[in-house]
Write a structure and sequence with these properties.
By secondary structure, the chain is α+β, with helices and mostly antiparallel strands. The protein has four domains: about 1-10 and about 490-695, no CATH class; about 30-195, Galactose-binding domain-like (Jelly Rolls), CATH 2.60.120.260; about 200-305, Immunoglobulins (Immunoglobulin-like), CATH 2.60.40.10; about 320-485, TIM Barrel, CATH 3.20.20. Helix 5 (about 345-350) crosses helix 6 (about 365-375), helix 10 packs across helix 13 (about 620-625) and helix 12 packs across helix 13 (about 620-625). The longest helix is centred in the C-terminal third of the chain and has 29 residues, at about 530-560. It is elongated. The two termini are about 50 Å apart. The model is unreliable at about 70-80 and about 485-490 (pLDDT under 50).
Length: about 725
């Protein structure tokens, strides 16, 4: 009997895996749009945005793409390829896209340009071997480029580009980031450009104005793509005011032996028009470079001149005080606004309401936000992705140089948050000191801390985060309505109440049947031909085991579907895993968790059967141990009461408390039967020891929790008010 029942239970577990695998719903995220490009680049360009094929591994991507190339289409229907949209908020593993290049690309070098790249991505073209490897992109936002030689393309047929994503190392450095790393994603434009021999690097442009000399300095990088033999080059810069030329610089350049060559253009500008929040004036800058053979590259870009300083804790722009009235938005907010193509209108509406600074919380925005803020006249407060990082794992500031390059290109960028939630120690102070040297000394920089009781970090202003925002002598920043971390515990499982009612009735029925069944002792497990009444008792006890673990599975499923996705915006964690689970069928999740717990219980009991007399079967011993779990219907009642005003965690607390209270009785029961209870702890102890050994390698995380997180948890718990039980009971019975 027990053997057949064991086979059935294990078969159910396998079945749950198969059903969940084939019915799994992928998170398609939301498509995000960028505004029309502000920088005008006169190059042959191919937009690679739009539909891409998504895969779980690089080998699968290559195999499927080769099948899709089959001209006869004989094998293309074997398995449907999952498609996604790029750019979007979707987490990515491996993506592939086919495209063609025409003869006009000729022998020109190409650049793959990716904006809003998160993670580490290896790029391959027309294969996945070493010879097809183009390069690697590492980003936490910003703009990234990879150079592709003409010989890598196939001009006779479609080319296929593959991008394999892994979480970036710096994303794993945050507190317990190694457990829950974020997936890679692309949230900006992705395109190919055919470039001339020498190009102007639009990602390295920077501007600065010197009042004493009345000169504007434009710094750029000349990228020489194939050789350095076509010198000299001539760079021409024209600064325009409403289409009228106001300054010009013509600069001949000779090679310095490097393929990336920095060049400074100096414009005499005695009476500039400064950019301000009230008057966001922008010049137009035309830049072009031409080599000795007439090969030319040209760009147009808006340019704003402003001078921001900080005196006595107050911000000043062009010597005028600014009272900061800021609004913080999260990346989820940004996804929604860009999906609705509402970004410029939203910024203008924010300004009309008196907001003068937008704070981007937890992410680096697409550059279209910065250009829009330049044009509208809004300040931008950026932050670097260094949040809740234990001291020894604080990254080297050099990896963020690509983000810092935006600093002098946009007059709207007014302040930086260098980190959030760092421990006050030498590591964090060294990080702040190094980064402070990379940003203009006049720009306000901050460290956001979660507690007022900690020591301050030297070299930077420390600002305390609160539930609704943060403030200082400079003004205040509030969280947007959609990013406040609402703690609503309502479930996204629509049928949960009905399921809880039916399940409680089932538990009551099982409890009654076990109470009515004949009482049996341990010796019956060795009886190969038990009486009918004992076999009936075995049957109901087995169902009780399944029902108890099914109850625990249901409660866990309930909690999963109650996790709010709008967590506090200052937490550096991505809830994509929870979001994906919540779009699955909750009954399948419940089925899988329950059968997994059953198999886990059989395994736990199975390794201990040798420590019991007569070496009973795993399921038989599990059913005998189940006799001390007769209280499980109370957990079902706790789940049901969740829908009548009781806390959603009541059922879990009930299960844990009753398990702990009944533990001595379970131990006594095992001893009386001649068994050893410690053997039942082998599996949990082994798993716990493995977690402990793994945790030792990441002891900095636990030190951070002890010194930074635990005090805040204790403080939060001290402020919790217990529910008024009399009112809750009144809701139920009246």
């Amino acid at each position: 009997m027990f053997r057949r029942f064991t086979i059935i239970l294990i078969s159910f577990f396998v079945l749950s895996i198969l059903i969940l695998t084939f019915s799994w719903n992928s998170d398609q995220g939301v498509e995000v749009y960028s505004s029309k490009p502000v920088i005008k680049v006169y190059r042959i360009t191919q937009d690679l945005g739009g539909k891409w094929n998504s895969y779980s591994s690089l080998k699968e991507a290559w195999a499927r793409e080769e099948i899709l190339k089959d001209s006869d289409g004989i094998l293309t229907g074997v398995k449907q390829t999952e498609s996604i949209i790029v750019p979007s908020s979707t987490g990515l593993s491996v993506i592939a896209k086919r495209f063609s290049v025409a003869g006009q690309w000729g022998s020109r070098t190409a650049q793959l340009i990716v904006e809003g790249f998160y993670g580490e991505g290896k790029v391959y073209l027309n294969g996945i071997n070493d010879i097809n490897y183009i390069g690697e992109v590492k980003g936490i936002g910003g703009i990234h480029k990879l150079e592709i030689s003409p010989s890598s393309f196939d001009f006779s047929q479609d080319n296929t580009i593959y991008i394999e994503f892994t979480p970036r190392t710096v994303q794993k450095e945050k507190l317990f980031g190694w457990i829950w790393p974020q997936k890679g994603r692309i949230t900006g434009q992705i395109k190919l450009e055919a470039v001339p021999e020498t190009t102007l690097d639009t990602t390295k442009l920077s501007f600065s104005y010197n009042r004493s000399t009345e000169q504007l300095v434009v710094t750029t990088i000349l990228n020489h793509h194939q050789n350095l033999e076509k010198e000299p080059w001539v760079i021409n810069g024209v600064l325009k005011n409403n289409g009228q030329k106001v300054a010009e610089c013509l600069l001949p350049v000779s090679s310095n032996g490097k393929y990336a060559q920095q060049v400074d253009l100096i414009f005499n500008l005695p009476d500039p028009k400064f950019w301000s929040l009230e008057n966001p004036y922008l010049y137009d800058l035309d830049l072009s470079v031409i080599n000795s053979r007439g090969d030319q590259d040209s760009i147009q870009i808006p340019l704003g001149i402003s001078q921001l300083t900080m005196e006595l804790g107050k911000w000043k722009i062009n010597n005028q005080d600014i009272d900061v009235k800021g609004l913080a938005i999260t990346q989820e907010d940004e996804y929604v606004l860009r999906n609705q193509q509402a970004m410029p209108g939203w910024l203008q509406e924010a300004k009309d309401k008196g907001i003068n600074v937008i704070y981007f919380m937890g992410f680096f925005p697409d550059e279209s936000w910065l250009y829009a803020a330049d044009e509208i006249g809004l300040g931008i407060w950026l932050e670097l992705p260094v949040n809740m990082v234990p001291g020894k794992r604080i990254p080297n500031p050099n990896i963020y140089e690509g983000l810092i390059d935006f600093n002098s290109r946009h007059p709207s960028i007014m302040a930086w948050t260098l980190a959030k939630g760092l421990e006050p120690n030498q590591y964090s102070e060294n990080y702040i000191q190094k980064f402070r040297q990379k940003i203009s000394a006049n720009k306000p920089v901050y460290h956001l801390t979660y507690s007022s009781g900690l020591e301050i970090i030297k070299g930077v202003e420390n600002v305390i985060l609160t539930a609704d925002g943060f403030r200082g002598t400079w003004g205040s920043v509030n969280f947007s309505d959609s990013g406040g971390g609402d703690s609503d515990s309502s479930s996204s499982w629509k049928e949960e109440k009905t399921s809880a009612i039916v399940w409680f009735i089932w538990l009551s029925f099982i409890s009654i049947q076990n109470f009515r069944a004949v009482k049996w002792n341990y010796s019956e497990l060795a009886n190969r031909n038990p009486k009918r009444a004992v076999r009936t008792a075995f049957f109901w006890q087995c169902l009780h085991l399944v029902s108890r673990l099914g109850t625990l599975g249901g409660v866990i499923t309930s909690v999963l579907f109650r996790v709010p996705l709008d967590i506090p915006p200052w937490l550096p964690y991505d809830l994509e895993i929870i979001r994906i689970l919540q779009i699955q069928n909750p009954f399948l999740i419940w089925f899988f968790i329950s059968t997994f717990l059953i198999v886990w219980r059989l395994l736990q009991v199975g390794v201990s059967t040798s420590a019991f007399p007569n070496n009973p079967s795993s399921l038989g011993l599990a059913c005998w141990l189940e006799r001390k779990y007769g209280w499980i219907f109370l957990v079902g009642l706790g789940w049901l009461l969740t829908f009548y005003g009781f806390p959603f965690y009541l059922s879990l607390i009930t299960y844990l408390l009753l398990s702990l209270i009944m533990l001595p009785l379970r131990i006594s029961q095992v001893w009386k039967a001649g068994g050893k209870y410690t053997y039942l702890s082998l599996i949990p102890f082994t798993v716990g020891a493995g977690v402990l050994i793994l945790g030792i390698g990441y002891r900095e995380d636990f030190h951070y929790v002890w010194s930074m997180v635990l005090p805040e948890i204790i403080l939060a718990l001290s402020k919790i008010t217990l529910p008024d039980w009399s009112n809750l009971l009144e809701k139920i019975f009246y």
